[in-house]
Task: inverse folding
């Protein structure tokens, strides 16, 4: 007929398998022709009528896709939830572990802090992109392959998450554990001033720098007291967003000054270092980064744990690890 | 506004299956897509071209319709006709349709026999 119809038919037919094209081409021309004729009969100019008929048909690629039942979504309902669970698991488990491993390896090899942070961000970003892309690609291919592969991945009642532990008796043991630990911690901080009797070299020498008594040691003792009050608050009210934020603040208030004092050499008493023969050959290059990573890791995990418990307690859904 | 959309959505849902039945019955006389569209609309069975053409193709794929190209006129047209299987399905659907109609009638009049 005219070029507009030809262009439409070509645009629609080119994405179809060769064998179906001739039939599709004919059917489509019949449909466009009949629709155009009907519009001309209502008094429209032929060119306008043709254009209107094509507008009515819509995007040729969508029309062709519906002709061969090709999905018009990347991942459909059959695989979406499986894909989503897997992505959540990869991002919440694989990604942090890999980044932590990179950070540790770099610190051990003696890179400076700026490089370590830069590399951690670079590795984290590229790994996140790779994990997301390849996982999604596999599922998009699965979506387009025939057969019923979803049966193996189907949901079963065994996948139901455990109910969050909300009852007070369940939290009591947690409270007692926290208070005992914090109490011992405070006692050790005070006691080390008079030496640590169970370490031969430090029987009479304070481990922490005695100059810290002017401010930092009282500061940490007050923090321990606040942590105890915090543990009691958790017992009394359960986790909520205010307490999750308070947990973050307490962790930062503890870890940042402690690491600052540690890395600038103000934390440990020089006499104590001498007494234990520090640095133990090359071991210092390994032990210091290891301590830093462990301290940061514990604090970060504690904050995340608080957030997870808050979300679960509020009926939110968190990644159910190991239950994909 | 959104109320109208809800109503339109439900009406569409309700009509979806009836278009299949109407096609299967109407195509006992062979006909091509546009003529079928016109005649259904004239009967008050409102159906959109973007619904009807894919439906005809699907019914043909399911062997409920058979088709034949008519090339006698200037524009070749694909004529569809109800197959024996399509006829049988039309019977089943029509029976079910009448059963639902009866049930709804009894429901609305409150006459529970």
Result:
């Amino acid at each position: 007929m005219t070029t507009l119809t030809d262009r439409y038919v070509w645009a629609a037919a080119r994405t179809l398998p060769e064998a179906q094209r001739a039939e599709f081409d004919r059917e489509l021309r019949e449909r466009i022709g009949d629709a155009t004729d009907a519009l001309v009969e209502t008094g429209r100019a032929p060119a306008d009528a043709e254009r209107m008929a094509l507008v009515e048909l819509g995007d040729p690629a969508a029309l062709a896709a519906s002709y061969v039942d090709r999905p018009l979504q990347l991942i459909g309902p059959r695989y979406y939830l499986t894909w989503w669970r897997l992505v959540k698991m990869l991002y919440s488990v694989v990604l942090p572990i890999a980044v932590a491993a990179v950070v540790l390896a770099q610190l051990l090899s003696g890179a400076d802090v700026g490089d370590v942070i830069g590399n951690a961000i670079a590795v984290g970003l590229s790994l996140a992109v790779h994990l997301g892309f390849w996982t999604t690609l596999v599922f998009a291919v699965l979506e387009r392959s025939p057969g019923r592969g979803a049966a193996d991945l189907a949901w079963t009642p065994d996948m139901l998450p455990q109910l969050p532990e909300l009852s007070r008796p369940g939290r009591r043991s947690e409270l007692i554990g926290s208070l005992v630990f914090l109490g011992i911690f405070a006692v050790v901080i005070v006691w080390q001033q008079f030496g640590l009797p169970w370490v031969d070299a430090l029987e009479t020498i304070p481990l922490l720098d005695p100059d810290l008594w002017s401010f930092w040691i009282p500061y940490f003792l007050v923090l321990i007291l606040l942590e105890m009050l915090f543990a009691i608050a958790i017992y009394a009210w359960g986790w909520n967003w205010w307490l999750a934020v308070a947990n973050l603040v307490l962790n930062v208030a503890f870890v940042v000054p402690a690491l600052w004092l540690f890395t600038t050499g103000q934390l440990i008493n020089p006499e104590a270092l001498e007494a234990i023969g520090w640095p133990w050959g090359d071991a210092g290059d390994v032990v210091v980064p290891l301590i830093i990573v462990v301290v940061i890791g514990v604090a970060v995990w504690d904050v995340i744990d608080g957030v997870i418990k808050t979300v679960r307690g509020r009926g939110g859904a968190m990644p159910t690890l190991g239950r994909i | 506004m959104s109320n109208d959309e809800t109503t339109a959505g439900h009406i569409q849902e309700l009509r979806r299956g009836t278009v299949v039945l109407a096609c299967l019955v109407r195509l006992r006389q062979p006909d091509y897509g546009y003529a079928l569209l016109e005649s259904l609309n004239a009967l008050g069975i409102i159906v959109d071209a973007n619904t009807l053409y894919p439906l005809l193709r699907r019914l043909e794929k399911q062997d409920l319709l058979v088709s034949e190209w008519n090339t006698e006129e200037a524009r070749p047209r694909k004529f569809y006709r109800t197959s024996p299987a399509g006829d049988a399905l039309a019977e089943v659907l029509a029976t079910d349709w009448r059963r639902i109609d009866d049930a709804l009638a009894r429901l609305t009049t409150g006459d529970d026999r």
